[in-house]
Amino acid sequence: MKTVVLVFHPHWEQSRVNKALVKGLDSQIEVRNMYQLYPDFQIDVATEHRVLEAADRIVLQFPMYWYSSPALLKQWEDDVLSYGWAYGTGGTALHGKELMIAVSPGADNYGPEGFAKYSVRQLLRPFQATSRLIGTTYLKPFVTTGAASLTDSQLATQVQQYHNYVRNDDLVALGDFE
Predict the structure, then answer these.
(1) By CB distance 3.0 to 4.6 Å, which of 40, 100, 104, 169 could disulfide with 139?
(2) What does the domain layout of the chain look like in residue ranges?
């Protein structure tokens, strides 16, 4: 299975968790640092289409910002997931591929009892809806909650779990209401 990980981290130099997660992936997985590729937000749509067409599994990896994604990921979605290519009439380029979200919220205060009152999976619903629109299989997200306060040991465990998760050929798809 060909897997591509698209990393959207606007402050890569200061990243501890996302850098470690990427470093823990084996060399057979293609990793693209999107803020390094497109610092001016001028996305090469043709290149991105080729990358996605060649992949079986697409992983969108990012830190959670304001209960959502960094700005470049939204710009990438707007530009790359175009009508007639990713959805709509003739838009079947991604049908049958898998989409996974790997997100790292800095805090650990999600869920009905936490400050945020929403679970991370609930906050990721727009990605699940997008997956449905573009015809990909939406896989259970890989969540690194509390990224800002992980110990070195906890981070090492998370890195290994991420590697195993991304490489797993038998991941569970989430249904529309999960």
Answers:
(1) 100
(2) 3-167
Buried residues in 91-105 as b, exposed as e (16+ CB within 10 A): bebbeebbbbbbbbb
Name 173's Cβ contacts closer than 8 Å, sequence gap at least 6: 98, 137, 138, 139, 140
pLDDT in tens, 145-155: 888 888 999 99
Task: Name residue, tokens 């990012």.
Answer: 62
Q: Residue 50 corresponds to which tokens in the numbers above?
A: 């080729």
Confidence of residue 163 (pLDDT cuts 50, 70, 90): very high
Domain 3-167 indexed as CATH 3.40.50.1100:
no
Sort 135 into a burial class: Cβ within 10 Å, 0-12 / 13-18 / 19+. middle
Instruction: Supply 139's token pair.
Output: 């896989």
Residue for token digits 């591509």?
4
Chain segment 91-118, per-residue pLDDT in tens: 999 999 999 999 998 767 666 676 666 6
Residues 6+ apart with CB under 8 A from 77: 130
